[in-house]
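Repro:
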Amino acid sequence: MKDRILAEIRRTAAQNGGEPLGRDRFLAETGIKESDWLGKFWARWSDALAEAGFQPNQLNAALPEDQLLRSIADLVKDLGRFPVMSEVKLRSRTAPGFPSHNTFGRFGGKAALVERVRAWCIAQGDHETADLCSPAPGSAPSEVGETADAVASGYVYLFRHGTRREFKIGRTRNPLRREGEVDIELPLEVEPLHKIKTDDPAGVEAYWHRRFADKRLRGEWFALTSADVRAFRRWKRIF
């Protein structure tokens, strides 16, 4: 188990631009829990990272401000608007090299971050992206980045159609009811495999649909491998 954890630390760090992941993101990416290593192999997460070959100065070094602002500006361009916090968290978990959402706290809050990104874009001559950096209409300054009609918590689920290699990825507020609805429509029994609780069901569902786009059968149905299913089941919560 220890060798596997060290291998996963190195693998996920390589996918993250050479930077090792924090313990929470490591859990989300690999499914390896804190109880699997804490007090068994290492007393602290930093000890595990050090044994994997990452020195303390690598772990604590602050990312350059320019890199943080560029990362958010790129996300603004992708979305066509300033992101809500759940979208920043999702990008940090799914895009190698994107900084952890916690690192943006150095700017002193969402309103300050919006203004810094806007000023940075103007300094770069990117006025189009700068114009997208504004609070949601009617939002208070402390609420910048959270829309007034934020999506309520829900789930992104993974169902299997009988014994077939057919898997459905969808979203719902009530997984049990949705299972019954889908079951009625199909010839074979539906098996619920996993669900991810999130405050951004549409965004998380869209991520998995894009990730498995080349395996789409029809609509929300995909021909997934066992590795694909394991990857989905590593995700528990996204907020």
